[in-house]
Design goal:
Blueprint lengths: L7 H5 L3 H14 L5 H15 L3 E5 L2 H11 L7 E4 L6 H8 L3 E4 L11 H6 L5 E5 L10 H11 L2 E5 L7 E2 L2 E2 L6 E5 L13 E5 L2 H10 L21 H11 L2 H19 L14 E2 L5 E4 L3 H10 L29 H9 E4 L7 H17 L1
The structure holds pyridoxal-5'-phosphate.
């Protein structure tokens, strides 16, 4: 039995008619860049996350870049963030000419630790950028207080967490600006590259809207250095259709995660993901911690189970950041997670047989070790 990490064909099959109609409408109007398809999605997604404004862009990386620029992050500034994330979180800081300052994560959840983040604040710090890792909201209440106490911008990287909640508040509703990726494998995924920034601040939304389109104010009037970060019409149309199904897909992921939790409780040596009080994750990933992770990973692959490692090298130890003086041991909790975390397959259409096969195979591998 093959178990993929995600099965987009299975996800799209039941809604193929809706998707085809939406795509056809874009072709009928030849509205390929921005246009009504994107505007409709922006307004639906803003309401979904409870924000006044949503600006669609061409990737989550671009969303982060524009959010940081709009928050005033520039050369000489520092942004406190997590080393245990997809590298785009740090890229965006670097693109602004600022320096990402990596504070260690909470060893249990893998998320930026508020105490360590606060200790990393200096007079140069302009913003704090926590990540809602794996579909589980960061400790955003604590980050809101820290940002207010120090007069910093809080920017939420919610790329992995569409639909997740924390004490009833949705991902994307925290801080000054929140950023999403709609990379196809995300819980809400486009048919290509896409992302969005959401905010309640009209002036910031307006600036981001301008920056994504060559910073034009009126045609051929470029008021600052801009970018070509526009969302494509097709992506807006596909995302608007898929948004209608997101809660149902997330609920299926929750049921799979609960079943994993129950079955894994009987296997010694496996540490299941820890959920903070008040959090309602959407299980973009289901990461466990296991001894001898690379051997276990290889054993699962040999059985055609597509487990994956998120992330084998924390960002502070990436060659791209070597010149900034980060050394092994700087963020020990992130480094330990990078050694022993393994993401088990989880996707809405996963069958109970597939899930049971993953658990049995994991137990077999650990017994053999
Ligand atoms: C935490 C996080 N931030 C940012 C991104 C960047 O998004 P994209 O791939 O759409 O540029 C991703 C996803 O890839 C992500 O997982």
């Amino acid at each position: 039995m093959k178990v993929p990490m995600i099965d987009l064909q299975a996800q799209m099959a039941p809604i193929r008619g809706e998707l085809d109609d939406a795509v056809r409408a874009i072709f009928d109007d030849a509205a390929f860049i921005l246009g009504a398809g994107v505007a409709r999605f922006e307004s639906a997604f803003a309401s979904y996350v409870g924000r006044a404004f949503c600006v669609g862009v061409n990737s989550g990386t671009s969303a982060l870049h524009l959010a940081l620029l709009a928050a005033g992050v520039g050369p000489g500034d520092e942004v406190v963030t997590t080393p245990y994330t997809w590298i785009s979180t740090a890229w965006a800081v670097t693109y602004c000419g600022a320096r990402p300052v990596f504070a260690d994560v909470d060893a249990r959840t893998g998320q930026l630790d508020p105490l360590r983040a606060e200790a990393a604040i200096t007079p140069r710090t302009k913003a704090i950028l926590p990540v809602d890792l794996y579909g589980h909201l960061a400790d955003l209440g604590a980050f809101e207080e820290i940002a207010a106490r120090h007069g910093l911008a809080l920017i939420e990287d919610a790329a992995q967490s569409q639909g997740a909640r924390l004490r009833g508040r949705p991902a994307g509703s925290f801080g000054l600006l929140s950023c999403f990726s709609f990379y196809p494998s995300k819980n809400l995924g486009a048919a290509g590259e896409a992302g969005a920034v959401v905010t309640d601040d009209a002036a910031l939304a307006e600036r981001i809207r301008r920056l994504r389109d060559h910073a034009q104010e009126g045609r051929h009037n470029h008021v600052e250095v801009g970018y070509n970060y526009r969302m494509e019409g097709l992506q807006g149309a596909v995302l608007a259709v898929k948004l209608r199904h997101l809660d149902r897909w997330n609920e299926a992921r929750r049921q799979h995660a609960a079943r994993y939790d129950a079955l894994l409780a009987d296997i010694p040596d496996v540490v299941a993901p820890v959920v903070r009080a008040g959090a309602e994750p959407v299980w973009h990933l289901y990461p466990v911690r296991v001894p001898d992770r690379d051997r276990v990973h290889a054993d699962l692959q040999a059985r055609e189970i597509s487990a994956a490692v998120h992330y084998p090298v924390p960002v502070h130890l990436q060659p791209a950041y070597a010149s900034q003086g980060w050394i092994r041991g700087a963020c020990p909790a992130a480094e330990a997670l990078a050694r022993d975390s393994l993401s088990l397959p989880i996707f809405p259409e996963m069958t109970s047989e597939q899930l049971a096969f993953v658990v049995t195979s994991l137990a077999d591998s650990l017994r053999a070790g």
